[in-house]
Every structure is written in structure tokens, then in C-alpha cells.
Write a structure and sequence with these properties.
The protein is mostly beta strands. It has one helix at residues 131-136; strands at 9-14, 19-27, 31-35, 42-46, 52-56, 62-63, 83-89, 96-111, 114-127, 141-149, 154-160, 174-176. It is built from one helix and twelve strands, in the order βββββββββαβββ.
């Protein structure tokens, strides 16, 4: 897993040209604490696995991270062929999502920040409850791909399937600029 330090920042731009920065704002014995714009809570990542274990509210108290579909995005150690999965539930409990990840390979990625060798990580997300189909209307699954660069210590490119599944999401494809 990468070693982050306070002040590490990564700046991205999505397809709508919205720029956002992810920043390490604190470290604890076994945690990295990150701030992401437009997310009210801080995110607490395990230093060994890089999984988001919980959120930290404005009051400093732990908040369960039950509905973040990318909370275990990297799941270190990583290697080509590794697979992992977990289920998330919406905060209002109306349906669950299965998130299945696989490291497909290593490839060169070109971004505005430069060229990087990166692990290509795919995520297939699927809504599990049948009643959720009526709730959402439309497709019940979709994919996202990330490219993780050991040199940059985080993802440098994100690609989201262009489908009705992701219409409700506020984020879109992003590429590193730093």
C-alpha cells in the first residue's frame, strides 16, 4: 500500500470539466484521513489495505460507511488477477449493491498529468433486490474502471460506463492533473 503524508493532494477533472482535489488532511497510527470536496464527512482509510473503514462527521464522531460503493476500491495488496467483492446498502436501507472488483492487468495510461504505468481495476456494480428495479427504473448494473499508479500513489484515470445505470451519480469520468 502507498505511504501518504499530510498535505498529499491529487487533482482531477471530470468530463464536465469540474475540477476536484482529494487531500490527506491527517494521519493516525493505522489510518489516513482524507477530505474530498462536496463530501461532508472526512474519510478514514486503513493504511495497510487502503479500504475506507469509516467516515468522520463534523463533530469528530465515527459514521458508518455502509453505502459507499467504492470504499474498498484498492484492497491492498494488489496484483494482476486479484478479485474481491463486498455488498453495500443504501443509507435508507431500500436496496443493496454487490460490488465486484478485479485487477485486469497493467498498462500505460496517458492523462493531462503525464504517462503512467497503472493497474487496471474493473468494478461491476449490481443492485441485488428486485424491488429496487421499480425504485430506480432502468438497468440494475453498471461498471467503472480505475487505473491505479504506484508512482502517483492513487488512481490516475477513472472511466464510467455510459449507461442509464449511472445517471443519478454526480461524478463522471475523471483524470489526474497533478
Amino acid at each position: 500500500a502507498p505511504l501518504w503524508k499530510i498535505g498529499d493532494k491529487w487533482t482531477y477533472q471530470n468530463v464536465s470539466r469540474v475540477v476536484f482535489t482529494i487531500e490527506v488532511v491527517d494521519t493516525k497510527e493505522s489510518l489516513f484521513i482524507l477530505k474530498i470536496p462536496r463530501i461532508e464527512n472526512l474519510l478514514a482509510y486503513d493504511k495497510k489495505t487502503m479500504n475506507c473503514l469509516f467516515l468522520i462527521g463534523k463533530d469528530g464522531k465515527k459514521v458508518n460507511n455502509t453505502d459507499d460503493p467504492f470504499k474498498n476500491l484498492f484492497n491492498f495488496p494488489i496484483f494482476v488477477g486479484k478479485k474481491w467483492a463486498y455488498t453495500t446498502s443504501t443509507s435508507w436501507g431500500s436496496y443493496n449493491k454487490l460490488n465486484e472488483f478485479k485487477i485486469e492487468g497493467i498498462e500505460e495510461v496517458v492523462t493531462p498529468a503525464g504517462k503512467f504505468m497503472a493497474y487496471k481495476i474493473s468494478n461491476q456494480q449490481r443492485i441485488l433486490q428486485v424491488q429496487a428495479v421499480a425504485l430506480r427504473g432502468g438497468p440494475t448494473e453498471g461498471w467503472v474502471r480505475y487505473w491505479y499508479s504506484p508512482e502517483v500513489k492513487t488512481w490516475v484515470k477513472r472511466e464510467v460506463e455510459k449507461s442509464a445505470y449511472w445517471v443519478r451519480e454526480t461524478w463522471q469520468n475523471g483524470r489526474a492533473h497533478v
